[in-house]
Write a structure and sequence with these properties.
Blueprint lengths: L1 E6 L2 E4 L4 E9 L6 E7 L6 E6 L6 E3 L7 E6 L4 E6 L8 E8 L12 E2 L3 E6 L1
Parallel strand pairs: 2-11
Antiparallel strand pairs: 1-3, 3-8, 4-5, 4-9, 5-6, 7-8, 9-10, 9-11
């Protein structure tokens, strides 16, 4: 069984920064891709960023390129999302997921999810 726990969400003004973290425990896949998705109220869950097990390859949604950075620490079994220059449209629940698909961008690629952490960006 895999457990994923996100943290680091909160309320921030537009232009500010937040750093999200996701800690994995239990039976985790050593060569898994880890990803971040977000879901705004009334909308479908959408891809934000993903990183391969080695950390050498990453993928980002166009809407966050140049502002968000995904990273991982395999020794600590964590994945982080540094979010800079936040905009009100970044407001959403943010979820980390685990997949065996390299740089998976579709939510159905991910078999394990955390409970999410809320990010609210005020204008």
């Amino acid at each position: 069984q895999v457990q994923l726990v996100e943290s680091g969400g909160g309320l921030v003004q537009a232009g500010g920064s937040l750093r999200l973290s996701c800690a994995a425990s239990g039976r985790t896949f050593s060569r898994s891709t880890k990803g971040w998705f977000r879901q705004a109220q009334g909308k479908e869950r959408e891809f934000v960023a993903a990183i391969t097990w080695s950390g050498r390859s990453t993928n980002y949604a166009d809407s966050v390129k140049g502002r968000f950075t995904i990273s991982r620490d395999n020794a600590k079994n964590t994945v982080s999302l540094q979010m800079n220059s936040l905009k009100p449209e970044d407001t959403a629940g943010y979820y980390c997921g685990l997949t065996n698909y390299a740089l998976g961008t579709q939510s159905y690629h991910y078999g394990y999810w955390g409970q999410g952490t809320q990010v609210t960006v005020s204008s």
